[in-house]
Design goal:
The chain contains eleven helices and no strands. It is mainly α. It has two domains: 33 residues; 210 residues, Orthogonal Bundle (MetI-like fold).
Length: 248
Amino acid sequence: MGEKFRIPVYQVLLVLGILLTWELLVRSGVAPVHLYGQPSGILEKGIALMREGELFVHIGVTAFEAIVGFAIGTTLGSALGLALWLSDTVARILRPLIVAINGVPKIALAPLVIVWFCVDMGAKVAIAASLAFIVALISVYQGTQEVDQDLVKPMRSLGARPLTIWRKVIVPGATPWILATMRLNIGFAMIGAVVGEYISAKKALGYFIYNAGALYDLNSVFVGIFCLMVLALVLDVVLLKVEARFKW
């Protein structure tokens, strides 16, 4: 079996092993079902919710909020991170503000965002975008500082304008950082969306998980968690394909 197929097989076996061990521990009474749920019960609950169509609605709402927030936050953050290279003075002025904002737990900003954007989907998109924005800004700006100076100095010595250097050297040099940030940011965008859904939502995975937890329905809680995990994996695979297209 080739390496390409062996790793996925091992990954599937690992997941199955964890689920089987979990099921056996619950069935033997070592792990109380009311505290840990049960894989077979989670599967039954998930199938029932899919038949009703309710689960797909929750997944669709969370996916939309996370993807739109990811796109907005990553685009704006990356653009500003790249632009800051053009002015070291502006970058130094903004650095303390960026550090201060980054140090604030984003969940603390969620109530403000809910008030500003009301309780509809826009608030969750805004929270997701805010998390993605700050991560992209810091990461991409750092990427511009890591560009090989042996490429920058010759262009400066030949009298190239900063904008020309930025366009021909800095942006291409920082592209790997942008691509890496994209994969990192999909997780942050999902966190932002779910945090917003915990606070105020009528449909979404965060809302579904919160309500199930309030009713001590752990099987439903795990259904929601597993849906988030699968959604994250699917989006990561998509971003991996995008990254592969831009590698040189």
